[in-house]
């Protein structure tokens, strides 16, 4: 247990720009790489990166979803099956690695992300938009999981068949609570930003420092070289 906790703290010591460059490289490989085996190898390597940072559970789910999508797409193309649409699995194959990289970026402390974005020549509105998106999505996903657990405890949404047979109940018991929870989260986020002086015109200082270490430079060089090799080969 202590090893997992220590691993998850690694992402707090990584330069945010290294994670952002990782996300850009993954997007480039996902949409520009023509060799499927290299695409699979990069996804497996991304799973290894998530494991090093202590998120092997989430990474394994992403990897399994990727392999299932690739296997089903191959089966569909080989046997001429069009249901579900092969285009759906093609999108999943391209987007799952991107989700993995974005998940890593979202796990970085928001204060460190803010410090990194302040180092870039970006308008404050753009910085705030990026920060809110990266922090709001994981929070909503966590709230959605809590809502599902609460519904299952009450004997609802126990199986996908029940969801299909009772769509109105699904809407009432899941979507409606999520809408109100999202509104509450948005209000709390806005109040927290105001309390922390987001409206102040003066230069702001953060708790986190986003310094570049030798290990960060090595990771950036490795990410860029790997992406370039996958795209050019």
Automatic annotation (TrEMBL):
Q: Which UniProt keywords apply?
A: Cell membrane, Membrane, Transmembrane, Transmembrane helix
Any one cellular-component term (Gene Ontology)? plasma membrane
Q: Does the keyword Transmembrane apply?
A: yes
Transmembrane stretches in the record are: 12-31, 37-56, 63-81, 87-105, 212-232
Pfam name, any one: CbiQ
Keyword Nucleotide-binding listed? The answer is: no
Any idea where this protein resides?
A: Membrane
Question: From which residue to which does the signal peptide run?
Answer: none
Q: How does it sit in the membrane?
A: Multi-pass membrane protein
Taxonomy, superkingdom: Bacteria
What this protein is called in its record is Energy-coupling factor transporter transmembrane protein EcfT
